[in-house]
Write a structure and sequence with these properties.
heterodimer; A: 316 residues; mainly alpha; MetI-like fold; 2 domains; 77% helix; 0% strand; flat; B: 312 residues; alpha/beta; Rossmann fold; eight-stranded mixed beta sheet; four-stranded antiparallel beta sheet; 25% strand; binds adenosine-5'-triphosphate; binds iron/sulfur cluster; binds magnesium ion
């Protein structure tokens, strides 16, 4: 079944990838300042012309722009994104490590988001225009409009400072789940609010469909009608929103990662921009963009898979 | 009277709305015998569908029901929702009008057809599957093993219509309530639907046909009930009804069909919220007299029932 459509979608990825790589690479030229001068400037402000020239040659910065780009692309294709100008560490490894941390946070955040959004969205729809629905919608409005940094500080004040349940911030070697709960909760509740509103309206729409009444007419219990006949169809349009949320989560939230001191990809991008670590900026921006692209690609596939009408149309 | 299948007594349904209370069904009393095809005809908005929903106990949540519905001697209007679920789809099933709306677009047709069997017959998944294939084949959906795995959008309209009938009859119900089965379909399709229904009826299933298609009702039914503004105003065997309709509204209704010159019924359809006082047809009735401003009695004449002062 995964045939032409799949192949076509994969082929579409190639020009987009090339465009993205070009944009990420060009950042260095759009950004103000000359990396060699910045790197070789001593803390006192002066720099040595010879040393700057040597740095340029060592890093290939004396070559024409397009040669630099192709060299970079060639290496990037085999996973070599060069070395940080600052720490001399492999860009790829650094980015990958940061991404792993962001991934951990994202998985937990997504789980929190779904666990909140699906039941509350469904209940809100089933009890629509009652006080239960109003409460759910008020919660969602709060979740959407409350800035992440504010929510983060409120949660830190309550869970860390007042009741001492969870650490206020830190990394815990990236394995201690206690350090992940607060940042994931902040990210997850924000995503949940958006998803919940989508699920509510989608579920409301489906529950009014005639086939729901048909399902009841067969003698199915309300629980089965809701789960088997309504929820599945109601979630299809929500797939796109969930996918978008995954994309945003995986790109790392600068605010949340900074507040909670989480060494994720968001923090890495900002740190490398602030310290003019050009190779790291190029590598991490490209990485983030590719992840976003791939997530979108998979979301499209899931959407097609969940939608028999599109599935058969596209694949046969 | 042992062959009475469905007995509806004094059923009324009102629905509160922002505009006022809708008197959708008022004092409905009739019965349907085993194996009988019983049609409920009447103009749009007269409460036919609501009456069907009242029997299935699938009314809008805010609707108010009163009266009694008995099915095979059991008072189903008094059952708990859980007990009623054992009746729906098992003893009484419904078949909707538009198969594209009535079938779930995201679930395979075979799965949907099998659902009533699994819910009511206590059979295994494999048994349900082979029974489903048999049912599809019975309604000319071939090859069933392939069609069973397809989704509704892969079916043609006529085929999906048949699949919907297969689904309605999956658990061998005694009574099928079919609401507007011929609405918006052309003559050829109408004939096909009539043929499928006749096939099911000849297997011994009784029908409550809800329709405003007088011709279809005439072709299919044993008995006819006429609905006007929430009330059943006449019930009669088919032959005498078409030969000599008794109620002035029935007469007007039959006069309005193409074969009889399409004489429209004078006056507007009544409001279902502020229903006319006394006889609900009196504002449009050519025979009305003063007493028509009080409720007319239901009169029995040679086994027919008519709600009109002229026969009192
Ligand atoms: N959910 C509802 N809420 C409020 N009023 C309703 C609802 N459903 C139906 N009604 C009203 O109840 C009355 C009877 O409706 P019903 O659907 O039974 O008519 P019908 O005879 O089946 O008409 P049609 O031939 O158009 O299907 C109408 O006045 C309609 O407006
Ligand atoms: S009761 Fe009176 S108004 Fe009503 S149908 Fe009979 S004659 Fe006409
Ligand atoms: Mg109707």
């Amino acid at each position: 079944m995964l045939n032409e459509y799949f192949i076509r979608r994969v082929l579409y990825l190639i020009p987009v990838l090339i465009f993205i790589s070009f944009m990420s690479f060009s950042l260095i030229y759009i950004a103000p300042g000359d990396p060699a001068e910045i790197m070789m400037t001593s803390p006192s402000g002066g720099y040595d012309e010879a040393a700057v020239e040597a740095f340029r040659i060592a890093h290939g910065l004396d070559q024409p722009f397009y040669i630099q780009y192709f060299n970079w692309l060639k290496n990037a294709a085999v996973g070599d994104f060069g070395y940080s100008y600052m720490s001399e560490q492999s860009v790829f490894e650094t980015v990958l490590n940061a991404f792993k941390n962001t991934l951990k946070l994202s998985v937990l955040a997504l789980a929190i988001a779904l666990v909140i959004a699906i039941p509350f969205g469904v209940v809100s729809a089933l009890k629509h225009n009652t006080i239960v629905d109003d409460a759910c919608r008020f919660g969602a409005l709060l979740g959407v409009s409350m800035p992440n940094f504010w929510q983060a500080y409120l949660m830190i004040i309550f869970f860390s400072v007042i009741v001492h349940w969870l650490p206020a911030s830190g990394f815990g070697h990236g394995t201690d789940i206690r350090y992940m709960i607060l940042p994931a909760a902040v990210l997850g509740t924000g995503a949940a609010a958006v998803m919940m509103r989508m699920i509510r309206s989608s579920m409301l729409d489906v529950m009014g469909k005639e086939y729901i009444q048909t399902a009841r007419g067969k003698g199915l219990s309300e629980k089965i009608v809701i789960i088997r006949h309504a929820l599945k169809n109601a979630l299809v349009p929500v797939i796109t929103v969930i996918g978008l949320s995954i994309g945003f989560l995986l790109n790392g939230s600068v605010v949340v990662e900074t507040i909670f001191g989480w060494s994720g990809i968001g923090n890495l991008v900002v740190d490398s921009i602030l310290s003019h670590d050009y190779m790291m900026v190029q590598g991490s921006v490209l990485f983030v963009a590719v992840i976003f692209l791939l997530i979108n690609f998979f979301v499209d596939l899931v959407y097609v898979w969940a939608n028999p009408e599109i599935r058969y149309d596209k694949t046969s | 009277m042992s062959d009475v299948l469905l007995k509806v007594s004094d059923v009324s349904v009102t629905i509160p709305t922002e505009q006022g209370t809708v008197h959708a069904v008022d004092d409905a009393t009739f019965s349907i015998n085993k194996r009988e095809v019983f049609s409920l005809i009447g103009e749009s908005g007269s409460g036919k569908s609501i009456l069907g929903q009242a029997i299935m106990r699938l009314l809008p949540p805010n609707a108010m029901f009163s009266g009694k519905v008995e099915l095979e001697g059991m008072e189903i209007s008094a059952l708990s929702e859980k007990e009623m679920q054992k009746v729906r789809g098992k003893t009484v099933a419904s078949i909707a009008q538009n198969p594209y709306l009535a079938m779930n677009p995201g679930i395979r047709v075979g799965t949907q057809v099998a659902e009533p069997m699994q819910a009511h017959l206590g059979i295994s998944k494999e048994d349900a599957k082979s029974r489903t294939c048999r049912a599809l084949k019975y309604f000319d959906i071939i090859p069933p093993e392939v069609r069973e795995r397809e989704y509704p959008f892969q079916y043609s309209g006529g085929m999906l219509q048949r699949a919907m009938v297969a689904m309605g009859t999956a658990a061998d119900p005694e009574l099928i309530i079919a609401d507007e089965p011929t609405k918006g379909v052309d003559v050829l399709k109408k004939r096909n639907i009539a043929a499928i229904f006749q096939k099911v009826a000849s297997d011994g299933c009784a029908f409550l046909l809800i329709t405003h298609d007088v011709g279809f009702a005439r072709a299919m039914s044993d008995r006819i009930a006429v609905n006007y503004c929430g009330q059943i105003i006449e019930i009669a065997e088919k032959e005498p009804f078409f030969k000599e309709p008794l109620h002035p509204y029935s007469q007007a209704l039959l006069g309005a069909v193409p074969e009889r010159g399409m004489h429209p019924i004078p006056g507007p359809s009544p409001s279902m919220i502020e229903v006319p006082e006394g006889c609900r047809f009196h504002p449009r009735c050519p025979h009305k007299t003063d007493r028509c401003l009080t409720n007319p009695p239901v009169v029995e004449i040679n086994g027919r029932f008519v709600r009109c002062w002229m026969y009192a």
